[in-house]
Amino acid sequence: MSIVILLLIAIIVLFGVRNIRMQFITRPVFSFFKKVLPPLSSTEKEAMEAGDVWWEGELFRGKPNWNTLHGFGKPTLTAEEQDFIDNQVQTALTMIDDFDIVHNRKDLPPELWQYFKEEGFFALIIPKKYGGREFSAYANSTIVAKIATRSVSAAVTVMVPNSLGPGELLTHYGTQEQKDRWLPSLAVGKDIPCFALTGPEAGSDAGAIPDVGIVCRREFEGEETLGLSLTWNKRYITLAPVATVLGLAFQMRDPDGLLGDVKNLGITCALIPTDHEGVEIGRRHNPLMMAFMNGTTSGNDVFIPLDWIIGGPQFAGKGWRMLVECLSAGRGISLPALATASGHVATKTTTAYSYVRQQFGMPIGNFEGVQEAMARIIANTYQLEAARRLTTQGIDLKVKPSVVTAIAKYHMTELGRDVLEDAMDIQSGKGIQLGPKNYLGHAFMANPISITVEGANILTRSLMIFGQGATRCHPYVLAEMEAAGMEDETSALDRFDSLLLGHMGYAIGNALRSFGNALTGSRFASAPVSGPTQQYYRDMTRISSSLAIMTDLSMLIMGGDLKRKEMISARMGDVLSQLYLASATLKLFEDNGRQQDDLPAVHYAMTERLHLAAKALDDAIRNFPSKIAAVLLRVLIFPLGNHFNAPSDKAAVDVCKGMLKPGPARNRITFLCGEFDGDTSGIAEVENAFLAKYAAKDVYKKLKKAQRSGHLKAKLPMLELFDVALDKDIITEAEHKQLVEADALRLAAINVNDFDKL
């Protein structure tokens, strides 16, 4: 006992007496920290400083405040936004024939281009005082997604001017003169923008842009002007073939010191009319047969005045930060909207098709093999809609959550791919035969575009999500890095000492919480609700604590090598991502008023999220470079093993059971598939067949009963079966007519297009 008391006194003295603590703990740890500190490039530093930490910060720190999540409120549309969707968007949908756009025109029809311009589809984010719509991120996302249910090419055409590009950059950073000059003409479609960032040598590594602008003096409009000589070569630039104004990112240099002592000012953005002398708009690309405009642009020794820099000369060299902040918003709106639209279409059409398509005498939706894939479609669509709402809500709260939008971009586009693949598997021939009746093919073909653009998914997952999240979201690391970079060592040590104590308490708390929750099944963790979703909150708190302690140990042991351990980094990023997606799912359930018919999809989605988060933790521990640390992590995180299993077969059946019939739950996750008279996309065709056959379900039961009793033959062609049943007075004339009409719709829905020639 006396030894324990002496040990406690020693610990208290060691940590409680400042001079002793500074000498034996703070100074050695500070030296070690500076040694293992990962080196940051200037672009990494700017990316780290750009944007804001939002809900992901709570998830990362080990003890999320769930009341904060619920306190964000419910995303809603204003009356003006809803009116635009009910009228202008619905009108636009009636003008879209995607098969004609992709296979015949290779472009939008002129009347659709004109309608988009006149009605402000290209001005969703432009302030009203400049003639724009000034809609919310949620409205922007909803508009793009609704258009995407009918045409990816049309949706991309709308989304690009409202995403990363001149409109957004000017709104946030432009000089008043630039705003007055460009925003009104962009708002009415008089000018069409594009933004040139990617080139042959710079894709995901946008910081490696080789395009250059050299500060120099030349004659411009009759006067000697200080400006830039620009040389660039860009590709994959959406809307470039039709653009009238070009946003350009380049490295700005001042070798002659005309602006000061700094020779390399860094990445800069400028706005250039495409009819300016020397600007070359090249030939079109063919992005997987989609018809949206995409191509190249180049220029050699093109002179522009410094005033054409977005934000003016004072924003020289600040382009990377501008891009990161604007890109973080765009990545959370546009591409996730396309993915969510894929989910809505896949769910609406696959549930309908599975009900009307028969094999072996019954709807294919009754086969468990089909239900396994269909359950994934439905649950993933619920997940996509939930993530779309939460992410756009963050943007509408005027935060710039760069980590959250990286999560949304990567995981939502991957989920979009998953739902399309499952839908294609179930609908098979209906999905692979292209034609006006095919509502899956073009989205399936276009999906890899979303996967690769605005930061390739592989690098987003392995470098960005955890790479930024570990530092940005951690309550101490970024401040400790700043302390390590202070020139005054005494001040740096003082600052580091105060942070170190807090960091140690934080780490110990997370370790104890992770271990305690693992032993007790999280039964004593807090949750903001009771009922069927309560345990999910508790389990997420456990996983959050586990991620936090694993992050601290990873940084301590691997230091600067952590960012080169991309597979481990990616797995820990997956944990954070799954927690974010799960948060969105729970919030949507609350926002929808805790609808009981949503619970099967919620249970399936939450079980999958927790399973994937725990699997990522397990895999990271298994591959941890320090075996001693791996053993410690396993004891703290999975002392009784990993029992977070994937969804059960019963859960899959339950999800499908409620969706193979019309109802509010199905409507809530398919509402983006706007319905209108004269819809020729094929979506309305299969939906009408579904509704007609479901309405006749009681009549079909009569036929089945008669077949089982022997009054009707078991195998007869449908129309013959109906006629025989009528002759035998098993059904009435009205019921016969209902069956014939429903079967005609069924045949139309399952049939595919054929052509004389291609």
Map the helices and strands.
Blueprint: H1 2-16, H2 18-36, H3 42-49, H4 55-60, H5 66-70, H6 79-94, H7 98-105, H8 110-118, H9 137-148, H10 152-159, H11 166-173, H12 176-187, E1 193-196, E2 212-220, E3 223-238, E4 245-253, E5 264-273, E6 280-284, E7 294-305, H13 319-356, E8 358-359, E9 362-363, H14 368-396, H15 402-427, H16 429-432, H17 441-452, H18 457-472, H19 477-484, H20 489-520, H21 534-558, H22 566-591, H23 599-622, H24 627-637, H25 649-657, H26 664-668, H27 683-695, H28 697-709, H29 718-727, H30 733-750
Parallel strand pairs: 1-4, 2-4
Antiparallel strand pairs: 2-3, 3-7, 4-5, 6-7, 8-9
Helix pairs in contact: 1-2, 2-20, 3-13, 6-9, 9-10, 9-13, 13-14, 13-15, 13-27, 14-15, 14-22, 14-23, 14-25, 15-17, 15-18, 18-22, 19-20, 20-21, 21-22, 21-23, 21-24, 22-23, 23-25, 27-30, 29-30
What portion of residues belong to β-strands?
A: 5-15%
Helix/strand-derived category reads: alpha+beta
Helix content: 55-70%
Q: Please work out how many helical segments DSSP would assign.
A: 30
Mean pLDDT: 91
Q: Could you name the key traits of this structure?
A:
7-stranded mixed β-sheet; alpha+beta; two-stranded antiparallel sheet; 758 residues; 9 strands; flat; 30 helices
Description of the structure:
- With 758 residues, the protein is of the alpha+beta class.
- The chain is built from 30 helices and nine strands.
- It has helices spanning 2-16, 18-36, 42-49, 55-60, 66-70, 79-94, 98-105, 110-118, 137-148, 152-159, 166-173, 176-187, 319-356, 368-396, 402-427, 429-432, 441-452, 457-472, 477-484, 489-520, 534-558, 566-591, 599-622, 627-637, 649-657, 664-668, 683-695, 697-709, 718-727, 733-750, and strands at residues 193-196, 212-220, 223-238, 245-253, 264-273, 280-284, 294-305, 358-359, 362-363.
- Strands 1, 2, 3, 4, 5, 6 and 7 form a seven-stranded mixed sheet that branches. A two-stranded antiparallel ribbon has the order 8-9.
- A hairpin with a 2-residue loop joins strand 8 (358-359) and strand 9 (362-363).
- Helix 9 (137-148) packs across helix 13, helix 13 runs parallel beside helix 15 (402-427) and helix 27 (683-695) runs antiparallel to helix 30.
- The longest helix is centred in the middle third of the chain and has 38 residues, at 319-356.
- The chain is flat.
- It starts with a helix and ends in an 8-residue tail after the last helix.
- The mean pLDDT is 91.
